[in-house]
Fold this sequence. Notes:
Elements: E1 6-17, E2 20-31, E3 35-39, H1 46-53, E4 61-66, E5 69-70, H2 76-82, E6 84-87, H3 99-104, H4 118-131, H5 147-159, E7 165-169, H6 177-192, E8 196-201, H7 204-210, E9 213-218, E10 221-227, H8 233-241, E11 259-268, E12 272-280, E13 284-288, H9 295-302, E14 309-315, E15 318-320, H10 325-330, E16 333-336, H11 340-344, H12 351-356, H13 370-383, H14 400-412, E17 418-422, H15 430-445, E18 449-453, H16 457-463, E19 466-471, E20 474-480, H17 486-494
Parallel strand pairs: 3-8, 3-9, 6-7, 7-8, 13-18, 13-19, 16-17, 17-18
Antiparallel strand pairs: 1-2, 1-4, 4-5, 9-10, 11-12, 11-14, 14-15, 19-20
Helix pairs in contact: 5-6, 14-15
Amino acid sequence: MNDKRKILEIKNLTKRFPGVVALSNVSFDVIEGESHVILGENGAGKSTLIKIITGAYSIDEGDVLFNGSSLKGKNVRDSMDLGIGCIYQELLLFPDLSVMENIFIGNEPRNKKGFIDWKEVENKSRQVLNNIGLDITPNKLLNELGTGQQQLVEIAKCLVKEVKLIIMDEPTSSLSKKEIQILYEVVEKLKKQNITIIFISHKLDEVMKIGDRISILKDGVLTGTFEKLKTTSDELVSKMVGRSFTSAFPKNSAESGKEALEIVNFNSKKNFENINISVKHGEMVGLYGVVGSGRTELARAVYGLDSNSTGELRVSGRKVRINHPHDAIQNGLAFLTENRKEEGLVLENTVEFNINLASLHQIEKRFLKQKELQTKASQKIKELNIKTPDTSALCLNLSGGNQQKVVIAKWLLTDPKVLIIDEPTRGIDVGAKMEVYQLINMLIENGCAVLMISSELQEVVRVCDRVYVMRNGNIAGCYTGDEITEENIVRASIGG
């Protein structure tokens, strides 16, 4: 690949902010027509690098060459004019405008009288949509499209500007598996047209699937550039976080005890039927299934968030009735929801407030002791290594991994017997995942039982002692020991 033309060259690039070196002496190149992945934890320097390439940030030291020309002194408009496009996590689209209006916004062709040539807008929009396989009419309103289709409209926006390089920043974070596969196919089409892709990601399976080469940033320093066919996931994780791939999925070493949670003949008219699951003290049990299998609905019903279910629950052998989350907390159950930003945290409030939120009933009823709240929050921040300036920092300013640790801290203060966790590592990088697993294992070793819902196969296979698989609202399989393989789990989940 090195004999092909270099479209982008990063040369000894350094970028400083007050008190922080965001990038330090970074050098690598991107080959024309390749898919080049930039991998790194939160804070590794990925966003800073993107903003320099797109002209949002200036260059302090070193240089960036695009097609042999320096980007020093270039702004965002200059970068776009040179043929560099960028698709951010938060799509820059207008939902109340049509698809073709979004594709050409700010770039509309004009007729001889200076008016927008809507016929040309429609024709060119149709051409570029066909080019990427998006079968929709150009005058369709954007808000009638799903997230995956909207992302393809962003790509179409770049293509009508005849870009040579497209940067995709965590493009699959909000997509379904089907939409992700479509995006992969579009990337392959673009490469065949000699359009270069820079793909920002923290998902190892994604990196190994879509990347031709992978450049890894750690704390603003480039730790290496690797050809996909000549590297392994283990090597990438090691270069990214300084630990091996095996340690990225630390296995629970606790001995299991008596039954902590028994879900007996649980039914819901719409979501699941005849569910029987048990979790022992000191055990990590996985619950796997494709979207729509009923996993999350089951967890919400057990925790008292949905009231249309029937069946029996036993906690430590004792039959309990849970009609409300308050009942669940009183009976020693904790629930980390899939959507931590909307259901797990009050983002606009402080770290201290969020950590104490589920255990306020344990504080003296007459009044809240501020010092006690602050002390408890400070202890958990230290124990869980939560990176925050202090207890008064707002949760919305923390990284995804640290937000998740705040949620875990909140439930630790309730001293749970059973912890139900739904997609605990979604949206956080590999290093933060390791820390979350270690925290969960700490709970298990202290006798807690954990029921983990996850759609990440590697996660389920490597960390769980037992795995239940749901399909169409039913238990389709249960595996232990050597039976816990990706093949068995996938076969059960899709009905093979």
